[in-house]
Amino acid sequence: ALPDVRDGLKPVHRRVLYAMNVLGNDWNKAYKKSARVVGDVIGKYHPHGDYAVYDTIVRMAQPFSLRYMLVDGQGNFGSIDGDSAAAMRY
């Protein structure tokens, strides 16, 4: 899919952010597991593979992938040196 001209988000980015908003993932709340967010996105909004959704969350949490970090991730989300992110269950 192509990014939108208005904000640069792809549809899967928009769906993940919407699902996280509906789940109540706010800056002042406790962190939730990635698998919970991925399952919610797949079940309700994006009926494709779970790896694509998890990879989107990982990229949105990396400070070097996008211009602005859209997800505040806790844990191992990879490094600029090529280290991969931790498994979804963590």
Automatic annotation (TrEMBL):
Residue span, Topo IIA-type catalytic domain: 2-90
Assigned GO CC terms: cytoplasm; DNA topoisomerase type II (double strand cut, ATP-hydrolyzing) complex
Keyword terms: DNA-binding, Isomerase, Topoisomerase
UniProt cross-references to InterPro entries, sorted A to Z: Topo_IIA-like_dom_sf (IPR013760), Topo_IIA_A/C_ab (IPR013758), Topo_IIA_dom_A (IPR002205), Type_II_DNA_Topoisomerases (IPR050220)
Keyword DNA-binding included in the entry's annotation: yes
Catalytic activity, as annotated: ATP-dependent breakage, passage and rejoining of double-stranded DNA
Tree of life domain: Bacteria
Any one of the GO BP annotations: DNA topological change
A Gene Ontology molecular function term of the record: DNA topoisomerase type II (double strand cut, ATP-hydrolyzing) activity
Keyword Cytoplasm included in the entry's annotation: no
List of catalytic residues: Y90 (o-(5'-phospho-dna)-tyrosine intermediate)
Similarity remark: Belongs to the type II topoisomerase GyrA/ParC subunit family.
Protein name: GyrA
Species this protein is from: Salmonella enteritidis
Gene from which the chain derives: gyrA
